[in-house]
């Protein structure tokens, strides 16, 4: 079996593909012959040395895969053997084989390709928690989705549209035509204009009821300010800190310094809520994840969840895949294939 290894922090050039012996399954575990692995922004930041939860170097990144179960451990029902599945992985997903416990796998919906199935777990669970569970998005609400053209962004757009909310999104201008064709109500070019001014213009000065903000630092301050009364701010990433070498250290320091502090009395008086999401720290809640995933899979079957694949790269070209996301070129999910 092969794995994409991150031997040390650095640019995408540090990535290496290495051979390892086949994995053995233990009791209650299954082995997946991987067809596609999701590449997430957290994997990029882990390679940059900016992801606090990453294992020590060298390690293999990757939070999700799709594939076929080719070996089962003691205590696992025979019916799983040969089944197409998607799975959450606690790192190690950028590999041609993974071994996971039963509570990390979900049957692959027949209507999805393996690439699309690898695009489901992280992006859609994050978006589900942000919009439905914590964000309580209502049909009459306006939601602002930052970086709406990315993996989580398009997942959030699917769900927000199903709820019936008004959708406003920020993205690089080259993505707007596609996003509007996908049903986004308003696209804001946040790279060349002030998104706050545009949001206020679009909402008659009221702001949005829900804002999904994975940028962090100063952006969280501005997003909080842009909430309408009863509004909720979802904080779930620090993309603003992304970078390589000395530039990344400065970006990280700036992002940290600009983090807002929310006072309970201000939250109360302004009728605003803030919440955080870290999917990588929900491993102790498999029942919750299974319920959320059940709703997402139902959405796939009903046709309102449609994962968008930006590009698929072979493991050999993992560095190009990292560069592609870092250059902000992706519309939707980037996957790696063994
Ligand atoms: N907390 C969690 O559990 C969790 C789970 C999943 C994802 N996340 C976070 O959600 C965000 C999106 O993740 P994703 O995997 O779906 O990635 P993604 O959105 O597909 O990531 C790439 C996009 O992010 C935007 N971006 C903003 N700042 C950037 C920068 N400094 N460098 C490069 N691109 C930048 C770019 O789009 P524009 O055209 O809009 O600039 C780019 O195309 C990340 O911050 C990630 O860490 C958090």
Automatic annotation (TrEMBL):
InterPro entries: ADH-like_C (IPR013149), ADH-like_N (IPR013154), ER (IPR020843), GroES-like_sf (IPR011032), NAD(P)-bd_dom_sf (IPR036291), SV-ATPase_mito-regulator (IPR052100). The keyword Acyltransferase does not apply. Residues 10-336 form the Enoyl reductase (ER) domain. Keywords: Oxidoreductase. Gene3D superfamilies: Medium-chain alcohol dehydrogenases, catalytic domain, NAD(P)-binding Rossmann-like Domain. PANTHER family: SYNAPTIC VESICLE MEMBRANE PROTEIN VAT-1 HOMOLOG, SYNAPTIC VESICLE MEMBRANE PROTEIN VAT-1 HOMOLOG-LIKE. This is Zinc-binding dehydrogenase. It comes from Marinobacter xiaoshiensis.
